[in-house]
Design a protein that fits this description.
about 240 residues, alpha+beta, five-stranded antiparallel beta sheet, disordered C terminus, alpha-tubulin binding
């Protein structure tokens, strides 16, 4: 054994190779393990059944030292030092690479619609953070939405009479006072001076003025909710009063 000294440390870190894999692993083991116990642990690493293993010990320079063939012997009774290599020979009849070929593993794929509903997935996290492809998708959607809004403003001009129909709200009549982009929200907006005090402002938002009107007569709506046409102011019967 060329004068190899037996290390008295309670644990040892060894390199692991096998006839079933081209990969090398590194694990730390207690020297108090019997070889039978060691084989059970190696089974989880290399995939070979413990009963079908033969072990060979190599030095830190990969020189063959000896066969490890006494299942009752302790690991520490062999000249195993840190960075030595234990080579596992499979006697079960399995072929090299058998446990590396993932194409032979039956895969379960979660249906896309089910995965979308999960709140603990990477996809859900990226959606919330609007990161990765979801950031690009949001940017594309915003660009498409803005293009649609711009197209909807082509026939909307300042001074035009209009009808405003917002879902969940009563029909309103007014005059177009502003068309374009604003600082308070992205996209295109139409500023309306209503015939009645049915609005939310006086033509200004957050200190920025876009047009002039009385308080509560002004509002900003999306161009899709505007219909420009011949909408005369309604007569509320004021001329019948003296």
């Amino acid at each position: 054994m060329e004068g190899v000294l037996i290390n008295t440390n309670p644990t040892v870190s060894v390199r692991l190779t096998s006839t079933l894999s081209s990969f090398e692993a590194e694990r730390r083991f207690n020297r108090g393990l019997t070889l039978a116990e060691l084989k059970c642990k190696l089974e989880l690493v290399v995939g070979t059944p413990a009963s079908s293993m033969e072990l060979q010990l190599f030095s830190t320079t990969n020189k063959f030292l000896m066969n490890m063939d006494n299942d009752e012997a302790l690991l520490g009774s062999y000249p195993v030092d840190d960075d030595c290599r234990i080579h596992v020979i499979d006697k079960s009849g399995a072929k090299i690479g058998e446990f590396e070929d993932l194409s032979r593993v039956e895969k379960y794929e979660l249906p896309d619609d089910v995965y979308d509903k999960r709140t603990d997935s990477i996809r859900s996290f990226l959606k919330k953070k609007k990161a990765g492809r979801f950031k690009e998708e949001d940017m594309e959607k915003e660009a498409e939405k803005e293009a649609e809004e711009k197209a909807a403003t082509e026939n909307v001009t300042v001074g035009s009479r209009c009808e405003v129909t917002v879902p969940g709200q009563p029909r309103k009549l007014g005059t177009v006072m502003f068309v374009g982009k604003t600082e308070f929200k992205p996209g295109y907006w139409v500023g309306i001076k209503y015939d009645e005090p049915l609005g939310k402002n006086d033509g200004s938002v957050n200190g920025k003025r876009y047009f002039e009107c009385q308080d509560k007569y002004g509002a900003f709506v999306k161009p899709q909710n505007i219909t420009v046409g011949d909408f005369p102011e309604e007569d509320y019967g004021l001329n019948d009063e003296m």
